[in-house]
Design goal:
Shape: elongated
Number of helices: 3
Order of helices and strands: EEEEEEHEHEEEEEEH
Strand order of the largest sheet: 11-10-9-8-13-12
Number of strands: 13
Oligomer: single chain
Radius of gyration: 20 Å
Strand content: 35-45%
Amino acid sequence: MCLGVVVGARGLKGDVRIKSFTEDPSDVAAYGPVQTDDGQSLSLTITGDAKGVVIARIKGVADRTQAEALKGQRLYVPRAALPQTDDENEYYHADLIGLAVVDETGTECGTVIALYDFGSGDVIDLRLTQGRTVMLPFTRAAVPEVDVSGGRLVVSRAVLDEVLNDTPEEDETP
């Protein structure tokens, strides 16, 4: 699970600025050492926050040059390291990716391939059975049921059809 990304160095002593993807930004360091894209294991200690990022010290990183070398590295932990959610309507994105998508009648529609938040709420990206991709708002109206343990997500056929009718095919020119 990606918890954040190093967005730059701060100061001269090796601190880094991290854009956290966790609900509480300081939790980026709460689940043990993180792994980077290139396989490094990093132990983080949060030292503060500034302008939408957390400031962290990384064990073994002692100067600005070393900190700058980490810029762009995504920070991961195994899914098993994260706590279970308390709310039945709260999900980790990674738990939804790969779920089968069906409509209210049980007709197979496709698979969840990604979730995004472009600033106005979560959007779910689906690969439909015919190969086309479509994005739906991740709202109760568009996605009335999520059954992670059952391996499926139910979408509203009416919402799906509306989006399909408003979205040109990939090979169509606008």
